Amino acid sequence: MATRLRARVTTGLGKAQSNVGASAASVAAALGLPDVYPGTLNLELEHPFEVPVGAHPVILPSLGARQQPFYFYAAELAGRSVWVTRSLSQLAVTDDLLEIVADCSLRASLNLQDGDEVVLTLRTGP
Hints:
Elements: E1 2-10, H1 15-22, H2 24-31, E2 41-45, E3 58-60, E4 70-77, E5 80-87, H3 88-93, E6 97-101, H4 106-109, E7 117-123
Antiparallel strand pairs: 1-2, 1-7, 2-6, 3-4, 4-5, 4-7, 5-6
């Protein structure tokens, strides 16, 4: 099963670049990737984010300098395997922004620009 989310590409604050970059090896190992790109693709959702029933996150206790849990959910974007990440601090601030982790720059490889609309498919179940 899967849950589809419509979203728009947006510019982030640049914090993920240092957090993901500093923890690239541990993030890649936890997600089963050979490597992770040191940054994220930021998506603004049409509707507030709710974790789909049956979604099983990979949880890292911290990421870079951020000493709080980060949750990673398996997903697909334009035929590519990606991971949606949320920290507890993000959940307290906003419920309509997601950060997407992948093994490459999704902006470059998918030729995405701010304002582009995409469909993100979150995996649920086994």
